[in-house]
Amino acid sequence: MNNMVNNKLQFPFFNWHLEISSKCRLACPRCPRTEKRGMYKVTELPLEFIQKNFPADFLQQNVKRMLFCGGQGDPIYNSQFLEIVQYIKKSHPKITLCIITNGSHKNQSFWQELGEALNHNDQIFFSVDGWDNESNQLYRKYSDFDSILLGIQTLRPFPVQISWSTIVFRFNQDRLVHIGRIAKENGADYFNINLSMLFGSMYENYIDSELGFDPLEPEYSKLVSPIERHRKYSFRLNSERQASGLDETFRKFYAQAKKNYKDAEVLPLCMAGNRPMYIDAEGFFYPCSWVSHPFGVRKSKLRPNKQIRWKESYWNEHKHLFDLKSRSLPEITSDSIFTKLYESWFDREKLFVECESKCAKDITSYATAYAKAFDNFSDIKMFTQKPS
Ligand SMILES: C[S@@+](CC[C@H](N)C(=O)[O-])C[C@H]1O[C@@H](n2cnc3c(N)ncnc32)[C@H](O)[C@@H]1O
Ligand code: SF4
Ligand code: SF4
């Protein structure tokens, strides 16, 4: 495929996820920034870093999609956010820039400048779970509803595609139609309803000891299997602006990965182009965001005695070798350090716990759901648009 660069594993460089900021003004209770405080650095990627690692010719020749979404933060709080967007879009106007934000606390001129920089290839997702300031703060702590609406309304005359994304909680489970109406009235093109796994029925620590249940968990959860909870339902509100047509590229990479990893234990979604190549807010490269996030202990689903601590994990121990501040991207992605990852995919005993839980073929994983969606040629938008 001609949109690959010469790196040993042939990582698909068409799809990127950059955490340009691990800063945020909000404190949503189940966000990693709230739950894992102290395990990550609050920082941002400077414009200079982006220019060095993504020069215009590299962008034009390789990159089709770039996602700005925090793992622990929100992209709009990067102090050079507008300059970064302007640089990327000027260098490569055809790129699909996808921005995921809580949308709070920015003024009109910020949104105006952003609208001017983006074009019809781009997408912005506003994560809003309530219908007014009070209800939105039930999960989006310290958000500011009026400034979110100001952002959507200011962007509306521009061609960027606007989505309003709502996670279903107990407090909004009966108000979804009302929220969707507000999204439409304010100019959103899509209303997305996202299910979540982060509830007491999946993780006991979320159960309130006095109540005996998780007060945030919606009642539908009892009816839905774990894999179904990766679902995102998307409703088109505006018939003029359609989601970008990247499906063909995703299909091509999926078909290739399916062939290449026919005999492997996993369908590595990083190689299938579904899970974007990831750079965290400190400038470290990872094949996907799943292997980057700090954790306490992770247990294997397939091997009862296998568990791994973050401090001793491969990715943490070898972090210095993935540092884009001191090494170039081709240097990192051609490093033999990734041979261990590649080999692990073909040997169950060597499988990384993260790869096993997200990409294994024989258990309920993202990879099995992704393969099902592709093989049926259905529902592909839920995997190609907005990662969780
Ligand atoms: C850490 S946030 C970063 C982006 C941005 N700050 C935001 O909140 O949209 C990444 C994603 O996690 C989602 N998220 C936050 N809390 C969640 C929860 N309890 N369950 C599922 N997804 C959640 C956000 O909506 C967003 O899509
Ligand atoms: S807005 Fe996003 S980054 Fe900020 S606390 Fe909430 S989920 Fe986390
Ligand atoms: S979990 Fe492993 S196989 Fe899956 S996308 Fe990440 S690195 Fe690739």
Concise overview:
This protein has 388 residues and is an alpha/beta fold. Helices cover 29% and strands 12% of the residues.
CATH class of the largest domain: Alpha Beta
CATH topology of the largest domain: TIM Barrel
Helical run tally: 15
Distance between the terminal alpha carbons, to the nearest Å? 28 Å
Order of helices and strands: EHHHEHEHEHHEHEEHEEEEHHHHHH
Shape: globular
Task: Classify the helix fraction into a percent range.
Answer: 25-40%
Structural class: alpha/beta
Radius of gyration: 20 Å
Whole-number tally of structural domains: 2
Strand count, sense and barrel status of the largest sheet are:
9 strands, mixed
CATH level 4 superfamily of the largest domain: Aldolase class I
As residue ranges, the low-confidence spans are 1-6, 382-388
Subunit arrangement of the protein: single chain
Q: Biggest sheet: strands side by side, in what order?
A: 7-6-5-4-3-2-1-8-9
Distinct small-molecule ligands in the complex: S-adenosylmethionine, iron/sulfur cluster
CATH architecture of the largest domain: Alpha-Beta Barrel
> How many β-strands, per DSSP?
11
Mean pLDDT over all positions: 88
